[in-house]
Amino acid sequence: MSDPIDKILDAVEAGESIIKNREILKLDYIPKTIQYRDPELEKVTQSLSPILKQSRPSNLLLYGEPGTGKTLVIKKVIKKIKEKVIKSNFPINVAYTNSKNETAIYGLIVSLGRQLGFSEKELPTTGLAISEVFKRILKKINEEKLNIIFVIDEIDHLAKQAQKTGNDILYQLTRANERLEQGSLTLVGISNDLTFRDYLDPRVISSLGEEEIVFTNYTPEQITTILKDRIKDAFIENSVEKPALDLCAGLAGGEHGDARRAIDLLLKAGEIADRRQLKKVTDKHVREAYENIEERAVKTALKAYPIHKKLIILAIIRSKNFSTGEIYLIYKNLCKAIGRDELSNRRITQMLSNIEEFGIISGRIVNQGSHGSTKKYELKITSEIIKKAFEESKDSSTLKDII
Ligand SMILES: Nc1ncnc2c1ncn2[C@@H]1O[C@H](COP(=O)(O)OP(=O)(O)OP(=O)(O)O)[C@@H](O)[C@H]1O
Ligand SMILES: [Mg+2]
């Protein structure tokens, strides 16, 4: 048999990969054709088009489940508007920022300023009050008669942060025009958290949602077409078997038609086949990729759990009859072992339901005859994954003797 290292290196050298263009499977790739989103593309364009006549478009809110093409659609429209603007030399500017990438509201507003051409000196990265930054931005818009479209992607993160810190920046942004004598500021908000209205000031909702566009979920058939398009350009011919394609679409489309998950799954499955130097991606590779992705998501959630949730899960691992009562007793002992005060039985019962909602454990009510009934829990994932996640978490040194 040939040396395994040589085999891999030779294959890479010879370019024998079934993935011919990996870029096309990257998440920020903008495909040439956006399938099934003509109505949304048209509505967004229509809504923002007054900017070309230098009048103010309405504020706009886009929402829909993750992976339904919101960012893709807005980026494509922005790109086209920018191309038109460059040609005609209008005082128009489109700024885009993702509020998930900005840890502070300050950063988000400065990012807007930078895209309007403010230098570090005019708008330092730290040190000013947010209201001062905003004032400078408005002054520039006014003086230079600029027409601005400001896109805030994943605006729910900003809304949550603003609510936590009591900042009214969203209100200021949506009402900026009232402070402008010339020029305009239009806000486009995007969210996949459909409940985000609950933590917004009603005045913000009414002005941000002057126009709203809802992105519906893709069906598995639509996901299949989106995948086929990518496969054509990203893989060498006939290297993705039909059952693999169907499974990708089924797994990602099953829940809410998430195109991102489908494309990611395809890439991961392709990499698995590639690593084994196979010429075809089969449904087995897709299944394996799916399990890897799921496992990673569960591990990330487990790592981030607060310490008492971790202790509950460790108690379930040690439990013999899995009843709520026994789990609570073991939990109390674990608290003692690491020198922590225990939480009340009621809090722990709440946490158990919460862990159950995420699917890490499942519970069922068991009737115990004259002893009444109790809820019993079982783990839905292996204790190896749990232990590994806890060992890699920030609590690892506190928990090291009981993992
Ligand atoms: N209609 C489509 N045609 C082709 N590719 C698509 C289509 N819709 C989405 N995609 C691709 O799926 C992935 C996810 O899309 P996108 O990032 O736009 O989702 P989103 O709605 O912004 O999700 P989130 O709310 O999680 O940010 C991207 O890689 C995008 O290129
Ligand atoms: Mg997005």
Question: How would you describe this structure to a colleague?
Answer:
There is one protein chain. The protein has helices at residues 4-13, 38-48, 70-88, 105-115, 130-143, 155-165, 169-174, 202-208, 220-234, 242-256, 259-275, 283-304, 307-318, 324-338, 345-357, 383-391, 396-399, and strands at residues 60-64, 92-98, 147-153, 184-191, 211-215, 361-367, 373-379. The chain has 403 residues and is α/β, with parallel strands linked by helices. It has three domains: 4-20 and 218-301, Orthogonal Bundle (Helicase, Ruva Protein, domain 3), CATH 1.10.8.60; 38-215, Rossmann fold; 305-399, Winged helix-like DNA-binding domain superfamily/Winged helix DNA-binding domain (Arc Repressor Mutant, subunit A, Orthogonal Bundle). Strands 2-3-4-1-5 form a five-stranded parallel β-sheet, sandwiched between helices. Strands 6-7 form a two-stranded antiparallel sheet. A hairpin with a 5-residue loop joins strand 6 and strand 7 (373-379). Helix 2 packs across helix 3 (70-88), helix 10 (242-256) runs parallel beside helix 12 (283-304) and helix 11 (259-275) crosses helix 12. The longest helix has 22 residues, at 283-304. The chain is globular and about 75 Å long. Bound molecules: adenosine-5'-triphosphate and magnesium ion (MG). Adenosine-5'-triphosphate is lined by residues 27, 31, 34-37, 64, 66-72, 192, 226, 259-260, 263. Adenosine-5'-triphosphate binds at residues 27, 31, 34-37, 64, 66-72, 192, 226, 259-260, 263.
